Amino acid sequence: MSYKFTLTGDKELQKALLNRAKNKAIQAIVKRNTTQVQQQAMKNASSTYTKGYSTGATKKSIGIGFENGGLTGITGLGMAYNPLNVAA
């Protein structure tokens, strides 16, 4: 007994699967690089302020975030004097 069947949409499925795999790889790269930028910013904050004036609050306020499904990484100060802090 022989059966015949037709498969349609395989090209679209293959394209969608490849795009998802690429997005996962991109998300991993964005996460790694954004984390490195945050760590470097924290390291720079430690050496920016001279002894006696540094409380460590600036360094502790440097945060990290992700948008656009993990395709955009954001790092920055959380302090009120941060010009990019919209919430302040």
**Discrete helix count:** 2
* DSSP, total strands: 2
Helix fraction bin: 40-55%
Assembly type: single chain
**Molecular shape:** rod-shaped
Structural class: mainly alpha
Strand order of the largest sheet: 1-2
Distance between the termini: 73 Å
Q: Could you describe the 3D structure shown?
A:
It contains two helices and two strands, in the order H-H-E-E. It is mainly α. It has one domain (10-76). Strands 1-2 form a two-stranded antiparallel ribbon. A hairpin with a 4-residue loop joins strand 1 and strand 2. The protein starts with 9 loop residues before the first helix and ends in a 12-residue tail after the last strand. The mean pLDDT is 82.
Short characterization:
By secondary structure, this protein is mainly α. It is 50% helix and 11% strand.
Keywords:
88 residues, mainly alpha, 2 helices, 11% strand, rod-shaped
Outline the fold blueprint.
Layout: H1 10-48, H2 57-61, E1 63-67, E2 72-76
Antiparallel strand pairs: 1-2
